[in-house]
Amino acid sequence: MSSVASPTPFSPAAPKTPRPVLQLVDVCKLFDGFAAVDGISLDIDEGEFVTIVGPSGSGKTTLLRMLAGLESPSDGYITLRGELINDVPSNRRPTCLVFQSLALFPHMTVGDNIEFPLRVRKVAPDERRRRALELMAKVRLPEDYYAKNVMLCSGGEKQRVALARAFAYDPDVLFFDEPLSALDYKLKKLLEKELKDLHRESGKTFVYITHSLEEAMVMSDRIGVMRAGKLVQIGTPEQIYTAPADRFVAEFFGEVNVIPVRRSADGWLRRDGRPVAVAPGLAIAGDEASVVVRPEYMRFVTAEAGADNTISGTIFNEYSLGSRLQYQVRSRTGRTFLVEVPRAAAWKGDGEVTIGWDAASAIVVGG
Amino acid sequence: MHTLGETRSRFLIRAWTAFVVLAIYLPIACGALAGLSKGRYFAFPVRVLSGEWWGKTWDSFEIHVLVQNSLLIALLVTVLSVLFAFFGALAFARYPWKGRRAFQRLLLLPIFFPQPVLGLALLLWFNALGISPTWKTAVVAHLVWIVPVVTLVIAIQVFSFDPVLEEAASDLGASRLFTLRTVTLPILWPGIWSGALFAFLLSWGNFPLSLYTAGADSTVPKWLYSKMVAGYTPMVPALGTMSTLAAAALLLAGGLIRILVRRRMR
Hints:
Chain A is α+β, with helices and mostly antiparallel strands. Chain A has helices at 60-68, 110-120, 125-138, 155-168, 185-202, 213-219, 237-242, 247-252; strands at 20-31, 34-45, 49-53, 75-80, 83-84, 95-98, 173-177, 205-210, 222-227, 230-235, 257-263, 269-271, 274-276, 288-293, 299-300, 309-320, 324-331, 336-342, 352-357, 363-366.
């Protein structure tokens, strides 16, 4: 093979099974010199459900827009099934984006909205209608909605219309830009599950972005965490939850206790001079680090049940989380710690407590 | 049950509405009455009512030419101004580019320019170019004043247009032309319709610009004025009333079409 300009040399690794459908190599997007997306490399496998999470302004929407062809990268490569698509316009890509605002055509009926991509492809009206009704059944829209004005639909129904329309395009990859963010909690939970079902049934590749960790955890095969245009970590929900790459990821994934420590000359990590025990093998670069302990791994220390690390303090707040209770404990040095215990293990004593955690349940992250 | 305050404010609102309606329509009604008078001269109260002058107006060859001129000018102005204004409105309300704000202000200026002065300026300009004023130059003059108005009317619609819809259409495979035809234009239709109605009515009723720039060709408002100045006949109020009624009918038809289109949507 003597052909040049093929982007394959950038992935020297042998093709994995399943094969990546989307490959990003060092993708950048500059806006007036500001890097909204700053060198992201990522392989997305066929049939995978990948979610990119990050706070607003982390560049996740810009990344998605580049994948959908609504922006072109300033640098780097995006390939779809091995073909470079950097400058392929959105209407020539076998991908489809479900917008945050859903972008339903307000002057059309539900049926016309769903049939739009079929109309573009000049599919005959009867066939279009058949396909639309089929898709409406798939996303659980009642058949008589076919002739309904789309603007008269409820939030959840609009969501389903947008989904059906995207499926009507029959894309290889579906992108989602926080489509559930405007819905109430119950409906959101329901649609998350339905989306996951749809993903499994269709076997298509889904790339989803959200700022909600919960949403990502429920649906994804893999989660990528973005911060300031960079992909900080990518892994299974399990990996991200139990082994966050750094303090940012740990804190992004729910409430955690972050205890700043320093490495002293004798090799111990110390908090305010006191040594902190951590599991062996947790290496850190540099002398400054943080020990991260999730609230559910913190517990009240008593004479019978000790812990590897202990801190004494006073309880100053107690919240009910339903089946669990959360306590805020202020240490002598004025730091606040979160302790979460099952309701059965509620603290019965006075406000003066000793809390602690085991070395095995703590994570050490840099910074 | 209403409190005294509510009853009073309701009464005030009704009274005020009645006053405004009267203030606007009473003079028009007087004009209409004048056209229905049997007498040769404009005098109140009207002694004998008759449709004689309406009939004469309706049959007059002179009036036919006037109406034809006015119609021709107004239709041309409508088509051309909507065309210019549509793209102009898209340009400054839809796409971000350097100078769009300046463009918007610059576009507004001719609206505030006193029309007689604008008419005179245009006449001098046509002379300088060696073009003798006819109904064609009047079309150009009307456009200078009406295009900005129509642009603003259409821009209001364009401002409320969500550009994401165009992105979505493209993402679903549509070409630019297909998107324009099936998404952008249908959503902007109400604004374009309003713009067209405005254009037609403003051109139809325009006097100062036509006075200077239509040359020897006369239009309805021009003729009405000249007959008021010298050679009054009851055909003046008769034609004025007809013109008003026609405009009202046009507005009603426009509103009706919109209601029908909206109903078909459901």
